Amino acid sequence: MDKRTFLKSAAGFAIVPFFSNPIELIESEAIKLRTIEDPDEFWKEVRSHYILKEEYINFESGYYNIIPQPTLQHFKDHIDHVNLHGSYYMRTHRFKDNRELAKKLADFVGCSSEELAITRNTTESLDTIISGFPWKEGDEAIYAIQDYGAMRVMFDQIGKRYGVTIKTVSVPNHPESDEQLVKLYEDQITPNTRMIHLSHMINITGHILPVQKICDMAHSHGVDVLVDGAHCVGHFEFKLEDLHCDYYGSSLHKWLATPLGLGLLYVNKEKMPKIWPLLGAHEKGLDNIKRLNHLGTVPVHTDLAIQDALDYINWIGLTKKENRLRSLQQALTKPLRNYPKIIINTPIEDDRSCAISNIGIRGMKPADLAKKLLEEHRIFTVPIDENNVQGCRITPNVFTTFKEIEQLKKALVAISESV
Ligand SMILES: Cc1ncc(COP(=O)(O)O)c(C=O)c1O
User: Fold this and answer.
1) Residue 9 CB burial class (10 angstroms; 0-12, 13-18, ≥19)
2) Given ligand 1 and candidates 123, 265, 387, which is best to mutate, with the most ligand atoms within 8 Å of its CB?
3) Which among 337, 388, 378, 383 has a CA at the least distance from the CA of 364?
């Protein structure tokens, strides 16, 4: 690959002659992000940024969003860059770069950078809070049985370890109103309740919950709210500060399309002092987010790609991305809602869902449906068969076309008619 080398001043670092040397940045000739007005041409251009397997149509972007070539090219440069400078990079630039990236990420999600840490994923972010909360015997916590399994397991562990009672709710797939959902959680609160764990988007159905209303209700009872936003950052528009939550975790390798192994943790500054870090940190300031973010030596070249993922999503435009994803989902689910044998496990309202839907067929196991879709129609999805949700999770992406949606729709109708 044609490599060009640039020099960048390292001014501001240790006043040792060696460390004041400029640092070389490696930058290969990257794909240019062009301005394209015509919507069809624009989405064709987006698709051209992805290398897609021809053997199957990928409707499983919910696990991991593969990254577009412009981001991937820059990411490879970052690997070269960190490898070239080695310990010199680690000692002189690593922590400064980390905080600069945290600042950019904080601007993107709408919070203060003093309340945001870059983590490896949602699991690490949320487990830091669940395990680090000052639990006492007799305390209570609430989660939904549709929340992500790893977090439920962590709460159950806390229950056994500290004598905390864990209460559960079951979120209806088609709620009547926000108030119904607020009440669902409120009904479980007692004077001993310390925390509600809440999915911003339930991963098995794509259901977006009214986080702000539930947080406001919880706070009126003195209860903290930890929000699982694994699927939300870079998926649809929202500002963290508008959610009113105390803690928030997300995976950037999902909808922000960064390389694998990146997440974020938001902790409200007032709540920070009471949380114990997962890994012991040198930072002593109780309200310093760095105290909760000691990781040891990690693949920092991955962190550097956050900038490129932000550039890419800003090039698309988050609102444009959200609208496109929702219209792909609705082009599939709206007509299918009329078929008697097809069950849509995702709410119909615009503000309760975006890209992700869950579709089942009466009388057919989700695993059999997923197998048929893959083997007979070359369509890759994931079967979900738990907690009031029986169907395949369908996750289109920015590279998905309406033609592919049509193919999936026809396949689902054909399968439903054969049962
Ligand atoms: C709702 C939800 N929470 C948490 C996670 C865990 O994410 P990660 O494996 O990136 O930590 C996932 C993963 O799919 C998820 O869907």
Assistant:
1) exposed
2) 123
3) 383
Supply the Cα-derived Rg of the chain in whole angstroms: 23
Please give the Cα distance from 112 to 102 (Å, whole number): 9
Distance from residue 400's CA to the centre of ligand 1 (Å):
22
- Dist. CA 324–CA 50, nearest whole Å: 17
Rounded to the nearest 5 degrees, what angle is found at the Cα of 41, between the Cα atoms of 35 and 47?
95
Contact 74, 257 (CB under 8 A): no
Q: What are the φ/ψ torsions at residue 199 (nearest 5 degrees)?
A: -80, 130
- State the closest ligand 1 atom to the C-alpha of 125, by its place in the atom list counted from 1: 11
Query: Ligand 1 centroid vs 224 CA: distance in angstroms?
Result: 21
pLDDT band per the 50, 70, 90 thresholds, residue 226: very high
Q: Write down the pTM of the prediction.
A: 0.94
Q: How confident is the model at residue 242, as a pLDDT?
A: 98
Distances (CA, A) of 343 to 248, 340, 363: 31, 8, 11
Nearest ligand 1 atom to the CA of 253 is 10
Looking only at the bridges linking them, the beta strands covering 165-169 and 342-344 are: unpaired
pLDDT score of 22: 55
Report the separation in Å between the CA atom of 250 and the middle of ligand 1, taken as the mean of its atom positions: 8
pLDDT above 60 for 5 = no
Taking 50 as the threshold, does the pLDDT of residue 17 lie above it? no
pLDDT at 376: 98
Atom number in ligand 1 closest to CA 122: 11
Cβ-contact 46, 398 below 8 angstroms: yes
Q: How many Å apart are CA 2 and CA 73, to the nearest integer?
A: 12
Q: Which domains does the chain have, with CATH numbers?
A: 95-311 (3.40.640.10), 318-418 (3.90.1150.10)
